[in-house]
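Could you join me in thinking about how sequence relates to backbone shape in a protein? Label the sequence line and the structure token line clearly, so we can match residues to local backbone shapes. Once you have written the record down, we can walk along the chain together.
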Amino acid sequence: MRSNRYSFIAGVALMALAHAAHALLPIQHWETSRGARVYFVENRDLPMLDVSVDFPAGSGFDTREKSGTANMTNNMLRLGAGGMNEDEVARKLADIGAQFSGRFDNDRSGVGMRMLSSPQERKASLEMLGRILNQPEFPASVLEREKARLIAALKEADTMPDTIAARTFSRMIYPTHPYGLRGSGEVDTIAKLTRDDLAAFHRRYYTAERAIVAIMGDVGRDEAAAIAEALTSALPKAAADAPVLPPVPPLEKGETRWITHPATQSHILMGGPGIRREDPDYFALFVGNHILGGGGFNSRMTDEVRQKRGLAYSAYSYFSPLLREGPFVIGMQTKGEQAKEALAVARKVVTDFVAQGPTAKELAAAKQNIVGGFPLRIDSNRKIHEYLAVIGFYRLPLTYLDDFVGKVERITAEQVKAAFQRRVHPDRLVTVVVGQAEQQAALEETARRP
């Protein structure tokens, strides 16, 4: 069986690199009778099946008054459902050898299961997944326990410099947008959550009309269609218009915020709102960011901050595209006494990159690295299934994976430069530094510089 699996992986990789005329992954797409969107890839090489159901129900759909509702709803789905308590659910999943998973971020909330594809195990696994998805009970006693556990974890996390930096940074780039809400919620908002809040959120957002079903593995089209129907037919009916996230306001000016903390390392985050998932500049920014700070030791940030000056163990950047403009982030950790210099170097690197773009040598190396690593992005059923879910949720072209390598190879230096100049404005980036008190004056001096 292992040889079949690796033969499949090798074949996929070769097709990707050779730009085969036939589809890399023949993704099939249709809608269920209730309007759920289904994305399916058949693969008979392994007796396994991966199934997930996602909804536009991430933390971006929380309210400021009850932030944490979306996360707690997702977390509680498997802690009592369809007449079974959490222990019975866990035992049943163990007995049938199924692996349950939850998915949660700013945009999405969902559940998934990896199971054996043999009829008996598949039937039992899908029955449990349907029970968890359609019949959550949100028992009040379990909710109180989970609230207490999460509040304790947040209180501890809120003393850590990395958490302080991340929370402050998020609020600075999204001061009024729900993307600025903490996904887990805050201590005071979690304390207020009730069972009715979770049940209402489930009815509002976990609806058949807004479900995205991704199926990957050892079943045929008819079987996949039956699975999607069974999982979504009993979901709540949408009682209102589809939820829509508000636009992300652009930052009007840059700002640096310094926060005192006794940690020996200063934690630095810099950035702003970035791009939406369907942005036409996506591939130019993806390739460009690989050069700027996403390519590890091959990136300018690492070279300038770590290699040449020894100011940080790592320095990085990334775009996180979402339904709305997700964050563009530059980050590093450095000794407190080096924070001023590290921040100045990072600012110069991003300013120069936006103004000048990449060199021909940098662009060629980035493309080679990205294209060479592409097979590793799809070297397992699990990874392919993750791409399938993303393609479905963000309504990307069904040929997204087929087109990936070609789109990367066609990016030019001018396209990278133009895209960064449209999307990244160095004078309007916000910065947060969490470090020791003696660095305040130096950091405030840096903040005053144009």
Observations:
- The longest strand covers residues 48-56.
- The longest helix spans residues 140-157.
- The two ends are 62 Å apart (CA to CA).
- Residues 255-448 form a domain with the Cytochrome Bc1 Complex; Chain A, domain 1 fold (CATH 3.30.830.10).
